[in-house]
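re: ur msg from earlier - yeah i can do the iron/sulfur cluster complex, just paste it... oh wait u already did. ok heres what im feeding in:
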Amino acid sequence: MNEYDSNRIFDTVKKIGFYKTEKLEETNIYLLNTCHIRDKAKEKVYHEIGRVKKNFRSKKKPIVIVAGCVAQAENEEMLKREPYIDIVIGPQSYHKLNSKIEEYLNKQKKLDETNFDAISKFNYLDEIKNSTKKISSFLTIQEGCDKFCNFCVVPFTRGPEYSRSFDKIVDEAKFLSDNGVCEITLLGQNVNAYKDNNYRLSDLILEIDKLPEIKRIRYTTSHPRDMSGDLINVYTISKKLMPLVHLPIQSGSDKVLRLMNRKHLISDYMKIYEKLRSINSKIEFSSDFIIGYPGENEEDFEATCDLIRSIKFINSFSFIFSPRPGTAASTLKPIDRKISLKRLEKVQNLLFENQIKMNKSLEEKEIDVLVENKINESTKFFGRSEYMTSVIFDGNDQDVGNIIKVKINKSNQNTLFGESLKDLERRVA
Ligand code: SAM
Ligand code: SF4
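and the outut:
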């Protein structure tokens, strides 16, 4: 979501004459878009600003802006601790960015803009055009969360759950498609809680499915409680909806799920898994795991390992529990760090094993790849499989934006390597 937000921030400042530069020394505005989901984010911000300071020691300083969730959570402290920061602006306020920059230029006074104003932000987003030039694009449809899992900072930094208007999302999807986008990933902290009057995520997927130039549709991140029947049913209808379901479970133990206030059980999750697999046996699952949550004992941890073995999750994320200020779990007694690290290593090995096996099983097979770009000046191209795995292969410029068959020759944990079937056939002939 921060990638989507950063692009919309560029679309915004363009309106008052700023453009993107990769050269730090020529910046007039240095804007850091930040994430607060796990620890160290705040320290990273100070570290980055230290780097900018060094670069501008003998030059006129740029306007320094900290945006995103760290700004939202640490606004006052940041302005006090680091005088080099000029503006802090929260994730629901960046539609006010241009006026804040202008205000700063006029008054040279530090500014703190961290109100939750999702409705006017989304109204504003509807007006500026999403200028992405990529083959695959994100599209935010929902933000914030009302679920309050005990470990999570999202309800505090992104605010309450809010869904964008159905029509405006479809307009943005059409605009993206007219501009060459072939794959859309619908985004939200609780993307499957999307609700605009009677429209749900399933309706959005089916509407976007009708756009001829859109070849693939994905959505992330879902919550098991919102995996409703209509959404599951879309997998029987849409050919463009990819067969990888990213559905965070966090732990394999009901006890830990209760301690986390997740409001779902392992059996609920298994029901969703079984239903989807019975619809389409090609569907694979990926997930998020929190390891070493306060109260997780060896038995709970082993239950997580068993779940990973039975569902054979691919492409998953696993993190050690990180206490976030202001959340219910922040004051709980942490479990020994060494134990957490050992458990994380075991979980990651299990997850990597699944991934390696999955990738290995594709060697010598032909798979569908959406070609995204050429890799620098080489003859190699980059694309993704239906399961989001990176594919590097010998291909052609005219394949960019198309789904082509690639014969896989080699694989490792994260990448598949191959050759475009068309090229292969041409060479053999
Ligand atoms: N809404 C989704 C759900 O509930 O399933 C998850 C979205 S959350 C923004 C992304 C992931 O960050 C979570 O699934 C969780 O694994 C991880 N996460 C959030 N807070 C964390 C914390 N305090 N420590 C470690 N990981 C955390
Ligand atoms: Fe955070 Fe997801 Fe829980 Fe909401 S449902 S509090 S975003 S982990």
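cool cool. The pocket of iron/sulfur cluster (ligand 2) is lined by residues 145, 147-149, 152, 154-155, 189-190, 223 (CB under 6 Å). ping me if u need the other ligands too
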